[in-house]
Structure formats: structure tokens, C-alpha cells
Amino acid sequence: MLVEKPSIQSSQIEELSIELPNAKIILGDARKVLARIPSNSFRCCVTSPPYWGLRDYSIDGQIGAENNVGDFVKDLVAIFREVRRTLTDDGTLWLNIGDSYTSGGRTWRAPDSKNVARGMSYRAPTPEGLKPKDLIGVPWRVAFALQEDGWYLRSDNIWYKPNCQPESVKDRPTRSHEYLFLLSKSEKYFYDHEAIKEPAANGKTRNKRTVWQVNTEPFSGAHFAVFPPSLVEPCILAGSQEGDTVLDPFFGSGTVGLVCQKLNRRCTGIELNQDYAEIAKQRLGII
Description:
CATH superfamily: Vaccinia Virus protein VP39
Number of domains: 1
Helix content: 10-25%
Radius of gyration: 19 Å
Mean pLDDT: 85
Low-confidence stretches: 1-14
Strand order of the largest sheet: 2-3-13-12-4-6-8-7-11
Distance between the termini: 39 Å
CATH topology: Rossmann fold
Strand content: 15-25%
Number of strands: 13
Number of helices: 6
Structural class: alpha/beta
């Protein structure tokens, strides 16, 4: 049986701000950190929050470990309400989020040699109204809740992963995609469509389509799931200009910061897990 990992109280995590000329990492709970950031601070936000019921970061109160999917949605709505406040009026949110299935009554999950953090000492119960083996529809639950909270839901981009992780299932197709939603703070917002035009068959370019073919990329660090820079780059190019500041409230291993460095943007990342913040520091050259 899975051995339960020790849990760290989120209140025990000491907030720490590490700064470079073009990057800042804040160690702390995004729910608390964002509340102290002034309004209109960021041109866009590019982020991927923890997915519900799929990972155990061993931190008490962590996003994604809620016992009820409705509470997970409420937590994200509250966080992104603060994100909306901190965005400029023409700002955008690029939100990557994946789906999950009901646990079928299982209360724990054995470790995975490829993804150690997939081992979990808890499994959330089947949400009310759903059945064992149901696809929960988490991305759309979140997207509709954000729309109801005031965001403009502008696009449901599909991240197609040609090299997706194999699944042993034999009663449904293997999942090879996730969602990348584009949401805006206002009806009119900054969006540089010229910066992300894609090649067309006639040798010219065309407006970017909603299916983005991007391979997952291995990373030798301890963080098991990282944003591919090729997925992040179009978001930053379309959602900001050189010199703008980009926010990632779930900074992880710091890929958004890396892409911002490449594209001459500033970046503020918030990360709850100290180990991941250390990895981000190293990747960004903050020693």
C-alpha cells in the first residue's frame, strides 16, 4: 500500500521574494500573494494550475487536492478573480488545464516510476451526479465558472500532444490533448495576431488555428510536468509586448519565466512548493 507522505502546512511556508532585473519569484500561496499585488500590474497571465485529483504535492491546503471538484473550481475562480484585478484593462489570461476521470471508489494510487508525484495517499470521491469511470469535464467546469464570474471566454485552444503518454485503457481512446483557454478581462483587449501567424499551404501565413500541435518535453529536474516552451511562446507573443510584465501564479519549474527572458518580457512567478521554486531559480539563472 502507498506510504503517506508528510504534509507541509501552507501557513508554515515562509514567503520569499527573489528578484532579477526581468524576473521575480515569490514563494508563497497565490491566494495570499495576489491579494497584496497592486491592480493593473500585468499585461497578461500564462499559467497551468494543478489539475484536480491527479497530483499530491504534500502541502496542506494545496490547490487540486480538494475533496470536491466544486471546491476546486471555486478556489480557481477566487484566484483568477485576483488575477483579473492585477491585469491591465486590456489584459488576457491563457489557462492550460487538463481533465480527469472519477476514481471509481479507489482511495489511493500506487506510485508511477515515470511520474513519482502520481502516487497519492488520497483519492477524491466520485463527484455527486457522476458515475465510476466518468470523464469529469474539469476544464469546461472551470471555464464556464470563470465566464460567469466576469471573464470573457474567447477561445478553447486544443493542445495536441503527438508524443502523449501511453495509457493502458482498452475501453476508450488514449488522451492526447489538453485545453488552453484564452480569456480576457474586457471586451476589447490586446492580442497581437500578427506575432503568431502560422505557415499556410501556399507558402504564405494565416491566422493561428485553435489546434496547437506541441510535443511534451522531458525535463531532468524534479518537477514532473513542465510547460513546453513552444506552448507558452505564442501566448506571450500574442498577449504582450516587449517590456511588459507577465504573471504566472503557479510558476512550477519556471518555463513562463524562461520564455519571457527569451522574448524580452518581465515575469512574476508565484510558487507554493519550495523545491520547485529552487528549480525555477536555477533555470532562470538566479543562484
